[in-house]
Every structure is written in structure tokens, then in C-alpha cells.
């Protein structure tokens, strides 16, 4: 299978949904992917089973504040510089590019990077969604050491980091990102196919395509999307308040949705850190990380990223279960509510929404 130009709109819609508000705006990633495919050809989509054990896989993603990515767009040379550094360090060419996070632009842009580099794209990622911090990847949860991070910015700087662990990889990579203007390209956990098996979340590019195609031609796009995701609808209403700030390489803030129609009188508040982290109604938690929470346009079911939230938008909020890896003790320690500073014990979304 290959990723063709006609696949990009569905991939972008799916990645935007799986991005839970973060991962960057899919529009720029989509344009880059379409341009790259036109110039370099379709991108083969490969499975881990297709690769020999010693094949090098390079997970790539943008790091920084999504609001900044609107104005500071990745150039065409950052992925090339990173791969050149991988070749210098390992003495051989990588066999595949992988999206570090399937959510948002970080799920779409790897198609462009793979096309320009003449490499296939792995049907897998490190999250099954989007998360804001470097160590919040399946490879870290699986116990792989964070031995190498390579970063490049739009100016042309290349930084190689040898962190002692995943938490230090976040601290050091974030400092470099802030110095670069809160936006850079990053490869972390450069690994062989043998080490990737069981440490990455497989089939997520295919899943993003399926999610993106769920609303095509649907009489009720919102219902079609809910059914595809197995999601609960937390509220349908109007966005009445948004508070956002860019600090420390993140977008942080809150958004409030007041119910309309049959849901008038209800109010849902979302806590944000690049992604939607916690949904609360009257002080009661309705959903929380690592489960997925996404804001969508009520009419079209198109995802609304955190940086695109505006007063008066008519939206619905969907929530559904994360990959089982994130519900393990190490997964919750890494990306559960307490990892973001919330004094909450994790409760699966299907339990929180079972009675309403």
C-alpha cells in the first residue's frame, strides 16, 4: 500500500481527530504532503513485519507550541539534516520514517518528510494520539532507554542530545525548542525494527485513514464519527470562553462549552496543555488523559484544534478510550492525570460516561 495524494484529506481529518486538540494544524502538513507527493511520488506504507530486524526506524515529529507553528512553518531541509545526522552516527541509511505521534500535523507531515527523503512510512506511531511531552511515547513506557534525540530548527541548527533518561530528554529537548522559537523538528528513539516490535503502536496510520473516511458522504457526520471511534458525546453547545497562553514551549489554558437545545443549562470545561487533558462538568470529571478528548464542529464533525477554538463556535466534545498501553501502571505514571499535575485518580472514560 502507498499513500497517494487522494489519501491526504482523509488522513488529515483522522489525524486531527486523534490529535485531541494538539499535534499542530493539519492544514500545513496536508499542503506539504501533497506538494511532496507531486514532486517525489507516492509514499510506501510498510508494516514492522515487512522490515528486517536491523532496519533503522526514525520517529519524526514537530516539537513546540501549536500556536507558533502557524507562523513558523517547517522548512524542507530539517528532516534531511536529521537523517544526515542519523547516517553519520549509525553509519547507514534509515529504512523507514515513523510518525512519533499520529495526532495533528505530526501525523500528516511525516508523509511529506518520507517522500522528500525517498523512504517508506511505517504504519505505526508512538502514542496512538497526541501528547505534549517528549517522554510521553510508547517506547518510554515499554522501557526502551532514551539514548538519543536529534533536533533541527528552521535556521539550520542541528542539536544531538544524549539524555540519561526519558524525563531528561523532555527537559533538554524543550530547552532547545524554546531557544529555537518554540518550534523545531525532532527525532527521538531512533531504533531498529527488532526493538520497535512491541514498543510502538502499530496500524495507526491506517486507523487515521479509516477515521477520516468515516464522515465522507455521511448524512449525520457526527454520529458516523462517534460510531467509528466508539466515543461518548460529552456535550453539544457553544464555546463561551477561551483562555490560552503560550509559555515554556506549550499552549496552556481552558475552554468552556455551554450546552444548547436539549442540553441548555449544562457547562463543560476543558483543561488544555497543547491537547485537551481533562473535561469537567460542575466540578465532576467526565473524561481525562490518557483517554482521548476531542472538540469537533457539530455540523461537519471536523476537529477543532486548541489553537483554533473561538468564542461562539458550535461544537461537540467526544471522548473515547486510549490504547491499552496507556492504562498500564507505567503508562499512567507517564501520561495519566497526575503526570500533568492533576490530583486525580484515573478512571476509564467508559466508566465515567456510563450513566450520562
TrEMBL record:
What taxonomic ancestry is recorded?
Bacteria, Bacillati, Actinomycetota, Actinomycetes, Streptosporangiales
Q: Where is the S-Me-THD-like C-terminal domain?
A: 166-349
Gene3D superfamilies in alphabetical order: CV3147-like, CV3147-like domain
Name of the molecule in the record? DUF917 domain-containing protein
**Which organism's genome codes for this protein?**
Nonomuraea solani
Q: Which residues form the S-Me-THD N-terminal domain?
A: 7-161
